[in-house]
Design brief:
heterodimer; A: about 150 residues; mainly alpha; 10 helices; B: alpha/beta; 2 domains; four-stranded parallel beta sheet
Chain lengths: ~150, ~300
Amino acid sequence: MTTLDFEFKKKLDKIIGGELHSYCFQCGACVGDCPTARYSERFNPRLIMLMCIMGRHEELLKQDSVIWECTNCYNCMERCPQDVKPAEVIVALKNLSGQQGNQPQKLGDMVKAVEKTGMTGQATKAINKIREDLGLGPVKPAPTQEILKLLE
Amino acid sequence: MKEKLEYTPFFGCMITTKYPQFEAAVRKTLPLIGVELTDLDGFSCCPDPIYFKAFDKEEWITLAARNLCVAEEAGLDIVTCCSGCTATLNEANHLLHESDEILERVNKRLKKVGKEFKGKVKVRHIVTVLRDDVGYDRLAESVVKPLEGLRVAIHYGCHLLKPSHIMQVDDPDRPTILEDLMKQIGVEPVEHEEKILCCGKACMDEHIPLEMTRDVLKSIEDLKVDCMGLICPTCFDEYDLGQLMLNRKFKTNFSLPVIYYFQLLGLAQGQDPKEMGFHRHKIKTKPVLEKLQLEKVP
């Protein structure tokens, strides 16, 4: 017998876009046009929505969860007749997964870079030289103090 | 046509620090079609719609809102040249307009740095500025050397078009904007079966993005095109550098040059390929320049 975990649903509902999973009526319109579903046997946005409804948080939020295979292409949002925005629900799941420290290493590195420099790419001497050769000025620094304050 | 076409450019991280040739191409081609770019201080990473958004959506909207405020304070609309920045800034702008609750929470945070989102700024992907503000006629008038005979496989990428209710650029299933832009500079756009397939870059799996890249390149393979033409630096990354990785992994032999639209526009305007950074690509662009009989091949 399956037990629904409503606590998880409440947590998911608190993240912007996460609450939309409740509207899913499992039609599967999101699956046919999903590029990841075309290439991955385990990725199915309809099933991910079902797992949200059922509160299967352990599978959804664990390290190497299937949610990280989403390409963020938004095809599912174009197709969904219920405005569930499955890609946004998956983003909300990623937020929760990260809160448990289960996000991929690459994601943590990118976020740290933004916190430190306000940018994901870094303006090295080499890149500024290339820019100069192309007739461009150096990369403008981002206001890191403001960024840090906002992320406090 | 509007009297003065002035915007503030938002080039983002990837273009400025990885593919500055795209920035160079934009900055050198726009003056010839009457567009003025006014640079502002104070922008940060948009922040990126994949990693940062996956980390914390509310912080993502907040940092995006701060960038929107910078433009708003200057009274200028933003023009973006990267589909990722376009996605972040447009989506954040949309959410802040759509939900008073989000707006209130974000403005509470922004207050800490003396900013307030008022919602007066528009975010435009640069191709829409070309189509809607400059107009195709004026664009075509800037061409001195039409790129006749150049067959280009168009690739759209996802975030220019979708979510379509937010982006409102073109039909997400049957877009024509890039083909139309290509035709203005004499290029022959060539359809390929996978022209709207995602490049896969955001998928955090080792194999899936490469398989997508392979299928896109395979769908172009027999069409006798000279290059691929696109407007997204993330797609570019996946198809230019990605081709090398693909060749290594699958022992394939792809060598299709990948060109950003404004680089082609620059050539059509008679500008030097080197100024457009044609020498900065992993997949050599020499065959394209040779076909166009541009003698000085870098």
